[in-house]
Please model this.
Amino acid sequence: MVSFLISIVALVLGYLIYGRVIERVFGPDDRQTPALAHPDGVDYIPLPTWKVFMIQFLNIAGTGPIFGAIMGAWFGPASYLWIVFGCIFAGSVHDYISGMMSLRHDGAGLPELVGKYMGKVMRIIMLVFSMLLLLMVGAVFVYSPASILAGIGGNEIMWFVVIFIYYIIATLLPIDKIIGKIYPIFAIALIFMAIGLFVCLLIKMPHIPEVWNIGNMDSWMSAQQSGGTDLLGAKAYMAKYTLFPAMFITIACGAISGFHATQSPLMARCLKSEKLGRPVFYGSMITEGFVALVWAAVSSWFFYSGGWREVLPQDAVNEFLAQVGNTDGKSLIQYFNAPAVVKLVCSSWLGVAGGILAMLGVVAAPITSGDTALRSARLIIADFLKFDQKPIAKRLMIAVPMFAAVLVLLIWQLANPNGFNMLWQYFGWSNQTLSVFTLWTATIFLYKYKKCYWITLIPAIFMTAVSLSFVLLPLFLFI
Model:
């Protein structure tokens, strides 16, 4: 696990060294924050720093750094490099600058910031684009937890209704009533799960692919064969989804995610000092990178080192092997999706506590991402329409049509057999494209105020190439 352990150290050093460099470039001062300047008891509420950090971490994380890292492990140890370099030099910078820009502009949402520095046309485009993304997040993150809860009791429709009602309540109530009370608990559980798995990795010290194995994974792939049949399925997967740009879209939340720029303004409205920006915005992204690295190592062990054989009972192993040779047989990558890997590993390594934490990870985390996405959507629309959000009536004026739109997406998703997968693909691409808008806006902001704009310009150029390639490459391959 040499590459994995070096990656962990690199993340810590990234926060301590490059995080301070970014902080000095921006230059936080002692000016009054929006939470102190005009508290409204709903969205602008000063909260304890530890709570703001935990809420920000859970808002931006959810299941993203877990599921993305598990699927990204199919690309091999290259995922370590993207998580480390992406997190330190792109994702954390993206989250910090967007959060600090919001602080400097009275807690403004992303479309307002884009409009201020890139013009009115871009403001409208950003408004439409971010709203579509946030509504998709709300719809996508109802489906998977409802399906899992239905396996415990009730049915999917019942859980859809329950989660949807919770969305409405959490979106409308003041941020300190539900989000401020239960989110820190879920965030602590998510961090505890990652630390527990990290300790288990240190104890097991499994032999897993290293960075120097990139481009030479044949021995690892041949180890996962049965009767000459490829069990892993990585070659077939890589033939369809090339490392560039697919890996950079698949692993988003653990490296860089445009969705975060819609969440940072929520916490910018709750901070008591600008100088808390580095631990809250930059620090929460580094913490998310740690979670992603842990799951990248765990899933590398699961897929490439035969870990799946250890966590499955023998009859389940035999059941998988029996279907491999069939016409519609599935490879390891197809057979074990991300939620299945989470449940199997946590239950095996962490026991009963692990099973509970896994349930929180695959059920609570996506729900919390969904409701903060919709809360952010409400505030973005309110900023655009100049609607004061203190009166409940004005909150409802925005929330009712917004929830109606999410309901339409949800019904379409249920009616379409491939609806979830289609929404997830659109979400993945639009998520990274949103980061492009944010990074270019941050670059213009830094340039205008004569600060070192290279810190955002370089990741902006790279992410632009990733997003465009993901759309254009299939067209060229088709031609």
DSSP finds 21 helices and two strands in the chain. The mean pLDDT is 87.
